[in-house]
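Can anyone check this?
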Amino acid sequence: MSIVNKDNSKTNVELVGLSDADINRAAQLTNLVMREQSIISVGDDSFIEEKCVNAENMDMSLNLFHDINTILQILHLMPKLRSVHLKGNVLLNKDVLDVEQPHPYLERIYLAGTGLSWGEFCKLAEHFPNIHEVYISGSTLNICDTPAHILQQMTVLDVQHSDIVNWSTLNDVSALPNLHTLILSNNSISSIQISPGQFSKLEALSLDNNKLNDWSSVAELRKLPLLKTLRIRLNPLITGPGLDMRLLVVAMLPAVKKLNGTPISDNERLQADIFYLKHFATDYYKGESDFHIMHTRYKELVKEYGEPDTGMPKIKSIKDNSIIVKILKPDGKEFEKKLLKTTLVKHLHLIVQRQCKILPKNQKLYWIDPSNDKIHLDDPTRDLAYFNIDHDCTVHVET
């Protein structure tokens, strides 16, 4: 390879001070790091072909490559290469040569800050039919006109910081058959509209720091049948106390298991459902047509829990409504559970079932009030507040 001197002349780089045995051992290396070495060209390609034959991972970030075909030449000299980092090589000549022989194994490529457009990247991708992960953030991308025969194996696409404004820009990649992770953080997407069949395999989506500003965009994400992991921080919609906004998103997306990096527990899911019902109760009773467009989940929760009580004000904070309840098992052991006053008895039965291995139909729940009266929790559709259960009360479990 060659490096650039201060006067812009080139110097071929050779391994100096190493024995033949050392050089031969170098041919066994699988991980090569040549980051920030001012490399600009190939140099002795026969040396690369011979001594880098077993390379599987290579970092050539922040060098001085300006011709995409120079990089392609290097990659094709390393037939076993699976991953390459090219971040920060500002490419001036991006006219990719036609494919003579595809690279058989390359699966992961990092292209942030190279200046490649989506069309130029697509032509590059024709050289790598087995590409699985693409990281091309930092360019202004118009993700359209994607040839149907490329990127069929791609599972991860990172297009952060790419000036994406319209969700429709993603129509082409939404049809890719194996795409399961899409990173769209730090763009300018203001609304989401998902058509039937789009992103049918998508499991993880990152939308941090965009411009989403209405709940209908969150509701649209329910159309992604396999979505389990979502990041949606730093959007105009997600304002106010962070916990409250998190609960609303949790309630609207019942299939999501991890939100903003934190797993969603069964108890949090229950709290979120009740909070969501209470929070939008007034809007629900107004009966405006666009309410159910923005809140497709609300009718389902009404069917499960019943209509919300408009006599109760909107919950401003889960903390104001949460209590610690002690639960005394039949064997005399006790455990504590943080619940909402609005937790239904039927959901308390499920908590007891998990802890005590007793089916709800075989449980008898009661608590002893300050007057020493035994209050049976005999209506599963009522909440804890109905039975005057408050902080530090003890619920007894019998069979």
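Reply from J.R.: I decoded it. The first strand starts at residue 2 and ends at 4.
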